[in-house]
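Session log. Operator J.P. requested a structure for one protein chain; no other inputs attached. Running the standard single-chain path with C-alpha coordinate output.
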Amino acid sequence: MPRGIEIRDAHFPGRAPIDAYGNGGFRFADMSHRGSLLCLPSGIHGWNYPEGGALTVEALSMVLDEADGIEVLLVGTGPEIRPLPQALKAALKARGISSDPMSTGAAVRTYNVMLSESRAVAAALIAV
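Structure written below.
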Protein backbone atom coordinates (compact mmCIF):
# COMPACT_ATOMS: atom_id res chain seq x y z
CA MET A 1 0.00 0.00 0.00
CA PRO A 2 1.52 3.41 -0.96
CA ARG A 3 2.36 5.67 1.95
CA GLY A 4 2.12 8.98 0.12
CA ILE A 5 4.38 11.88 0.93
CA GLU A 6 6.34 11.52 4.12
CA ILE A 7 7.10 14.82 5.85
CA ARG A 8 10.24 14.73 7.97
CA ASP A 9 11.91 17.37 10.08
CA ALA A 10 14.37 19.34 7.98
CA HIS A 11 17.89 18.37 9.08
CA PHE A 12 21.30 18.51 7.44
CA PRO A 13 23.65 16.28 9.51
CA GLY A 14 26.76 18.43 9.37
CA ARG A 15 28.14 21.90 9.78
CA ALA A 16 28.11 24.11 6.70
CA PRO A 17 28.41 27.81 5.98
CA ILE A 18 25.28 29.67 4.95
CA ASP A 19 25.69 30.60 1.28
CA ALA A 20 22.72 32.96 0.95
CA TYR A 21 19.72 34.26 2.87
CA GLY A 22 16.59 36.23 2.06
CA ASN A 23 13.19 35.67 0.47
CA GLY A 24 12.10 33.81 3.61
CA GLY A 25 14.88 31.23 3.66
CA PHE A 26 18.50 30.17 3.38
CA ARG A 27 20.87 28.30 1.05
CA PHE A 28 23.64 26.03 2.34
CA ALA A 29 25.41 22.82 1.24
CA ASP A 30 23.86 22.99 -2.25
CA MET A 31 20.38 22.97 -0.70
CA SER A 32 17.77 25.54 0.15
CA HIS A 33 15.46 25.79 3.13
CA ARG A 34 12.38 27.97 3.46
CA GLY A 35 11.94 29.23 7.00
CA SER A 36 14.19 29.76 10.00
CA LEU A 37 17.21 27.65 10.96
CA LEU A 38 19.12 26.40 13.98
CA CYS A 39 22.78 25.76 13.15
CA LEU A 40 24.02 23.42 15.88
CA PRO A 41 26.91 20.99 16.43
CA SER A 42 24.54 18.15 15.41
CA GLY A 43 23.79 19.85 12.10
CA ILE A 44 21.49 22.39 10.53
CA HIS A 45 17.86 22.01 11.57
CA GLY A 46 14.69 23.62 10.30
CA TRP A 47 13.37 25.82 13.13
CA ASN A 48 9.61 26.17 13.37
CA TYR A 49 9.80 29.74 14.62
CA PRO A 50 6.58 31.72 14.18
CA GLU A 51 7.07 35.12 12.56
CA GLY A 52 7.11 37.75 15.28
CA GLY A 53 7.18 35.04 17.97
CA ALA A 54 8.90 35.42 21.30
CA LEU A 55 12.50 34.29 21.73
CA THR A 56 11.92 32.02 24.71
CA VAL A 57 13.83 29.29 26.52
CA GLU A 58 11.36 26.81 24.99
CA ALA A 59 11.90 28.17 21.45
CA LEU A 60 15.64 27.53 21.82
CA SER A 61 15.44 24.24 23.74
CA MET A 62 17.44 22.43 21.03
CA VAL A 63 20.31 24.86 21.59
CA LEU A 64 20.21 24.24 25.34
CA ASP A 65 20.14 20.46 24.75
CA GLU A 66 23.43 20.71 22.81
CA ALA A 67 25.10 23.18 25.17
CA ASP A 68 28.24 21.05 25.60
CA GLY A 69 29.38 21.84 22.05
CA ILE A 70 28.47 25.54 22.05
CA GLU A 71 30.37 28.50 23.47
CA VAL A 72 28.67 31.28 21.46
CA LEU A 73 25.10 31.48 20.18
CA LEU A 74 24.50 34.06 17.46
CA VAL A 75 20.83 35.00 17.29
CA GLY A 76 19.73 36.47 13.97
CA THR A 77 16.62 38.33 15.09
CA GLY A 78 15.33 39.24 11.62
CA PRO A 79 15.87 42.53 9.81
CA GLU A 80 16.20 44.47 13.10
CA ILE A 81 18.17 43.73 16.24
CA ARG A 82 15.91 42.60 19.09
CA PRO A 83 17.23 42.16 22.62
CA LEU A 84 17.03 38.68 24.10
CA PRO A 85 14.68 38.25 27.08
CA GLN A 86 16.47 38.05 30.43
CA ALA A 87 15.18 34.52 31.14
CA LEU A 88 16.69 33.25 27.87
CA LYS A 89 20.01 35.00 28.46
CA ALA A 90 20.15 33.50 31.97
CA ALA A 91 19.35 29.96 30.72
CA LEU A 92 22.10 30.20 28.09
CA LYS A 93 24.62 31.65 30.53
CA ALA A 94 23.84 28.89 33.06
CA ARG A 95 24.97 26.38 30.41
CA GLY A 96 28.13 28.34 29.59
CA ILE A 97 26.84 29.84 26.34
CA SER A 98 27.35 33.52 25.58
CA SER A 99 24.60 34.98 23.41
CA ASP A 100 24.78 37.75 20.85
CA PRO A 101 21.62 39.10 19.19
CA MET A 102 22.05 40.84 15.83
CA SER A 103 20.25 41.19 12.53
CA THR A 104 19.97 37.92 10.60
CA GLY A 105 22.38 39.16 7.91
CA ALA A 106 25.04 40.05 10.47
CA ALA A 107 24.49 36.72 12.26
CA VAL A 108 24.97 34.76 9.00
CA ARG A 109 28.22 36.59 8.22
CA THR A 110 29.56 36.20 11.76
CA TYR A 111 28.55 32.51 11.88
CA ASN A 112 30.40 31.81 8.63
CA VAL A 113 33.58 33.48 9.90
CA MET A 114 33.48 31.71 13.28
CA LEU A 115 32.70 28.37 11.59
CA SER A 116 35.71 28.82 9.27
CA GLU A 117 37.83 29.36 12.40
CA SER A 118 36.51 26.06 13.87
CA ARG A 119 34.97 27.89 16.81
CA ALA A 120 32.26 26.32 19.01
CA VAL A 121 29.53 28.48 17.50
CA ALA A 122 25.82 27.94 16.97
CA ALA A 123 23.24 30.17 15.34
CA ALA A 124 19.50 30.68 15.61
CA LEU A 125 18.54 32.42 12.38
CA ILE A 126 15.11 33.94 11.87
CA ALA A 127 14.28 33.97 8.15
CA VAL A 128 14.07 37.34 6.42
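Operator note: The helical segments are 61-65, 86-94, 104-116.
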